[in-house]
Amino acid sequence: MGTYATITLPKNSNQEISKTFELIGEIEHSLSTYNHTAMLYQLNVTHKVPYDSYLAEALRLSKHYYKDTDGYFDVTIGSISKNLYHFGEEKPLSPDKKALKNAPLNINSIHIGQAFITTDKNITLDLGGIGKGYAVDKAAAYLSERNITGGIMALSGDIRCIGTCEIYLQSPFTEETFAKVTSKVPDLSVSTSGTYRRYATKKSEHHLIDPKTASQGKAFVSVSLFTRANNSRIDAYATAVSVMPKAKALQFLKEHNEIGYVLVEPDGNIIDGNLEGLIRLKYNKPA
């Protein structure tokens, strides 16, 4: 999945930590577009791979969240993010407008059978908007089975608190943090998405691309979402909200009052809501 992972558990949990990293490695072997032996990488090359339970479940969830977000979360964005911009490769590119306009996206091009998973020949998938959250959910389920009741896991900006925890939100403009988050629930899920870390040849060409227009999201420079025990969902939703027009994003979040949010606009203005019952939020300085 091309990211870093951290796991902090109580003393005498070394075996659980090792097993959790092994599980994350297994999931990465299913969902990675970087590892040439990974199932998703092979699917993008050959368009047909043997059935893989992790890949199949992640793709089913992706189709569901495509509908939930009115198409703003679309894993077939790989036809743009991977084939044109080459995000995650040594030398990303700046595609021309014609190539972007003609890039094929079609969520119905994904076919999950009992024996094989296939895609249409012109489609490339990118699970970067859900893969980390999915892995966090699977790791949290394993630790729950092992009766682990305290700790924190993070795959880049996708975080699960086991028990209560404190985290800090990073400013999209500096290396400093701008807010302290204290969980009020024992199973807080957090997903943060931003325009400030990954871009092609210039910062305006960041990796959060609206699948409807093939252009970068402009309403927010940072999106942080919070809910209970569902990182897959808010990972996908954070990706979608990041590329929605502002009015659409706020309406979407209003309709999902089980999801808290902290949004940072390009001018530094902060919009938050739906936080009651999930977290205590303390701003320490402007974003």
From TrEMBL:
The GO molecular function terms of this record are: metal ion binding; transferase activity
Q: How is the cofactor bound?
A: Magnesium. Can also use manganese.
According to its UniProt record, this protein's enzyme class is transferase
User: Where Mg(2+) is bound, by residue?
Assistant: 129, 235, 239
- Mind telling me what this protein is named? FAD:protein FMN transferase
Catalysed reactions listed for this entry = L-threonyl-[protein] + FAD = FMN-L-threonyl-[protein] + AMP + H(+)
Give the SUPFAM superfamilies listed for this entry.
Answer: ApbE-like
- Coiled-coil stretches are none
Tell me its family. Belongs to the ApbE family.
Q: Which UniProt keywords apply?
A: FAD, Flavoprotein, Magnesium, Metal-binding, Transferase
Q: EC annotation?
A: 2.7.1.180
InterPro entries tied to this protein: ApbE (IPR024932), ApbE-like_sf (IPR003374)
Q: Which cofactor does it need?
A: Mg(2+); Mn(2+)
Q: Which organism is it from?
A: Sulfurovum lithotrophicum
Key word Magnesium present: yes
State the Pfam families in the record. Answer: ApbE (PF02424)
